[in-house]
């Protein structure tokens, strides 16, 4: 029976560096997959429809959707035009949004973080607030970009966990403290998503795919940041890796 580490795909951001575009993934996500999930991180270029995702997914045991300073293009959820100067990543949208339902349908474990969480909500038909801090009743969920990184990714607010949810089960807690580095947030929840956690102002901070055959979790915060120093983050990536190992074993049986 195969004992190789599971392969976890990570769709890349497409970013202009100098005169050329690159497809890139933040190293902290790569480390969390390799060390936290004990899996092999495989970066996936964001080639949109050119990717043939369905065939590609057959060779993977999980997918991680990362955070990004870019926003999902509003036309993807019939939202209002973004403020001038907003950073988007159309190629990433064109890659992840069609991929998400295929990942769930194929029974691959999925962990989505921040922008990835927002992509999941849009892929399931939900919509986004673009500037939570300008919406009556919501606090500012952004980081201070002038602050040191440890402060930007440091504890920012509590979340209340759904008592019957996966996060409550994984953590054994009802309330946790998380970091917060986002301007956007869930406005309407996508069909089939079950809320796992909310911030004190009511912002949805986590959900799962209610009827997914495997691990399918979206988080608005960043558990990958110094995950080794946080027992809940370690448990999250360990559970994600375990689900990917299970998929790898199933795949090995049918080869
Ligand atoms: N642009 C979206 C998502 C924010 C996000 O993912 N921030 C993290 C970026 C850097 C990192 O990967 O840690 C929004 O503003 O809501």
Automatic annotation (TrEMBL):
PROSITE patterns: GATASE_TYPE_1. The keyword Thylakoid does not apply. SUPFAM superfamilies: Class I glutamine amidotransferase-like (SSF52317). GO terms for molecular function: hydrolase activity. Gene3D superfamilies: 3.40.50.880. Signal peptide: none annotated. Keywords: Hydrolase. This is Gamma-glutamyl-gamma-aminobutyrate hydrolase family protein. It comes from Steroidobacter gossypii. The lineage of its organism: Bacteria, Pseudomonadati, Pseudomonadota, Gammaproteobacteria, Steroidobacterales.
């Amino acid at each position: 029976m195969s004992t190789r580490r599971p392969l976890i795909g990570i769709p890349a951001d497409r970013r202009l560096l100098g005169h050329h575009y690159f497809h890139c993934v933040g190293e902290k996500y790569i480390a969390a997959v390799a060390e936290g999930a004990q899996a092999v991180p495989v970066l996936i270029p964001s080639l949109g429809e050119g990717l043939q995702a369905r065939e590609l997914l057959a060779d993977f045991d999980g997918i991680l959707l990362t955070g990004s300073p870019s926003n999902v293009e509003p036309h993807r959820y019939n939202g209002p035009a973004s403020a001038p100067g907003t950073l988007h990543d159309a190629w990433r949208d064109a890659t992840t949004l069609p991929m998400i339902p295929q990942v769930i349908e194929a029974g691959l474990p999925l962990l989505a973080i921040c922008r990835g969480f927002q992509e999941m909500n849009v892929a399931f038909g939900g919509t986004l607030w673009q500037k939570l801090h300008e919406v009556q009743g919501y606090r500012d969920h952004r980081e201070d970009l002038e602050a040191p990184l440890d402060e930007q990714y440091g504890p920012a607010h509590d979340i209340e966990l759904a008592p019957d949810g996966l996060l409550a089960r994984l953590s054994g807690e009802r309330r946790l403290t998380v970091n917060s580095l986002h301007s956007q947030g869930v406005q309407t929840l996508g069909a089939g998503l079950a809320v796992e956690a909310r911030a004190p102002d009511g912002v949805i901070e986590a959900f799962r795919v209610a009827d997914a055959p495997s691990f399918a979790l979206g988080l608005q915060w960043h558990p990958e940041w110094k995950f080794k120093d946080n027992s809940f983050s370690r448990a999250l990536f360990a559970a994600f890796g375990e689900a990917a190992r299970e998929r790898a074993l199933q795949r090995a049986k049918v080869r």
